[in-house]
Amino acid sequence: MLKAVILIGGPQKGTRFRPLSFEVPKPLFPVAGVPMLQHHIEACAKVPNMKEILLIGFYQPNEELTRFICSAQQEFKISIRYLQEYAALGTGGGIYHFRDQILSGGPEAFFIMNADVCSEFPLPEMLNFQKEHGEPSSFVILGTTANRKQSMNYGCIVENQQTNEVLHYVEKPSTFVSDIINCGIYLFTPEIFQHIGAVFQKNQQDMLVLYTNEQTNGWHRAEAIRLEQDIFTALAGQGKLYVYKTPAFWSQIKSAGSAIYASRLYLNQYHKVHAERLVTTEDGGPRISGNVYIHPTANIDPTAVLGPNVSIGTGVTIGAGVRVRESIILHGATLQDHSCVLNCIVGWDSTIGKWARVEGTPSDPNPNDPYAKIDSETLFRDGKLTPSITILGCNVTIPSEVIILNSIVLPHKDLNRSFKNQIIL
């Protein structure tokens, strides 16, 4: 039997995702119409012999998370549990802390997935690859090709091209190492815990030395272990670690801008796996261009034009002549007549007035480079806000006939004029 573990992190992370992460834990933010985590769970539930999915993180168990887990269990008919860490333990520390829960029932292997990636999740292919490569107890990293410059922002993998064994692993190197990068999705056998345990023992000994020399201020934790730097770097070149390279789409979801890009990738994938989630132009309905998801409870005027790459949540109201492109409209939002929304995330219960224009600048990868990834943009450059998508927090009101360009508006704001390149607090 198999299990899957999804690492969902916790509240101190996701700062680049503000103000959207104020309202909802980042892993539950809707991307292409469903919570980010649901894409992972759907992929896991399709794998034969998958018995349980464990979510590990240090969010306080809240109503939203509990409700999501309950509905996902019913929909996918699989056991899903949330295990809360007492502190941020790193990608390896969390799974080591809950190793008894992961190993209960005796799974022969288990997947580890980071919640903030978007992917086609080629899990069955990784299983087949593991059977064909190396010994049964080998471990597999999902890799993809990046361009030379961007590869240094990720974990870089040097492989043996004949056997796909990982010979060398460096997390975010300062010079070019390899264009194969770590996708944050792994297939492990229970033997991985011996390697993590060895790091834990070493950390404990190091801490004893620190305590003895009184060099610690109490925040070091032996359990804080990073899979990438502490485990993969040591395992590389030992015949234990292999890389399965996927040609399919993959991206990180670190910032709100990357959520729109991820939404586009998932909407495009729906043609193959969830055609029922995509809408088309129908008589008496709005004009649809490209891939668009509309929740059945949304109320949309037939003269609106939507798409490409638009996702519209529950209870959204869209008036006459509205134009929406490359945007995520969250539940309860209202777009009044003839407003225009481009490259934007419109927060929960926000209102955009008549003839208003809300527009951002997409932070897309270079379309001429097949290996380009989305850049993790810094919020500011040269003391100015970097032009990116426009984000409206929840319950923001934009008056009629104003223009909001490349701005971030925090929740519960009533604007009274146009803004450009601003963070409106």
UniProtKB/TrEMBL annotation:
Q: Copy the pathway line from the protein's UniProt record.
A: Nucleotide-sugar biosynthesis; GDP-alpha-D-mannose biosynthesis; GDP-alpha-D-mannose from alpha-D-mannose 1-phosphate (GTP route): step 1/1
Q: Where is the Mannose-1-phosphate guanyltransferase C-terminal domain?
A: 288-424
SUPFAM superfamilies the record matches: Nucleotide-diphospho-sugar transferases
Key words, A-Z: GTP-binding, Nucleotide-binding, Nucleotidyltransferase, Transferase
Q: Does the keyword Nucleotidyltransferase apply?
A: yes
**Single Gene Ontology MF annotation:** GTP binding
Q: Where is the Nucleotidyl transferase domain?
A: 3-203
In which family does this protein belong, per the annotation?
Belongs to the transferase hexapeptide repeat family.
**Main function:** Regulatory subunit of the GMPPA-GMPPB mannose-1-phosphate guanylyltransferase complex; reduces the catalytic activity of GMPPB when part of the complex. Mediates allosteric feedback inhibition of GMPPB catalytic activity upon binding GDP-alpha-D-mannose. Together with GMPPB regulates GDP-alpha-D-mannose levels. One of two paralogs (gmppaa and gmppab) that may have redundant functions.
Could you tell me what this protein is called?
GDP-mannose pyrophosphorylase Aa
Which species is the source of this protein? Salmo trutta (Brown trout)
